[in-house]
Amino acid sequence: MPFLHSSIKIKSFNDYRIIFWMSIPIVTGIFWGIMTETLIGPTVQIDNAIENILLSDFDTHIEDVTYIGPYLYQKQVDGSIQVDIKSFVCLIVMVAIILLSMGLIVVSAFKCFLGLNVYLEVNRNVSKKYNSLQVQLFNALIIQTLIPILLMHLPCLTIFVCAIFEIDLGHSSVVMTITTALFPALDPLPVMLIIKDYRNALTNIVITRVVPVKKKKKKSRNENATNNF
Q: What residues does each domain of the chain span?
């Protein structure tokens, strides 16, 4: 969107400061790896707690599984329950990371909304087609904002919160794996379907390439059926 080009912060992507932005996912990944290995890595206690579940529900032996995960409420030999501080800290950090990520997405989308309103107000004399494109881009941005929140953030947040409150989701936890896998495929669709030029191009491809191929295959099957008869 053109109204963002004048931002001083955007210029930081064009000089040495780009190193800072590129280092964020690297540093975050290193922190995540160290935290999970240190706080919720495999332990004998977790092995004993889940080996029967793995065997009965998934027909899998604990020796064949590599995992990381919190074991928050640990059952002791005397039957008492002890809260594992490491698991609790890790879960809180994970929830905080998800909430921070969601907050950044929502705030950024809201600021884009305000910026778009200012842009359209200032540039009333610009062609309707140009302003229409800006609105289409913003609508695509809103949908692309909702997709990761609905497919990744909320499912992950639900699992972590349920773990804190000792709520067993069972096989329902697999939903997070499915929705996360769907995200890369669904993420570009809003731009392809909402932006008019992209939508028209996609429609033309379907009409000129996909439909004729299907008709040709159908015709070939009909001819083969006639010949066989």
A: 94-208
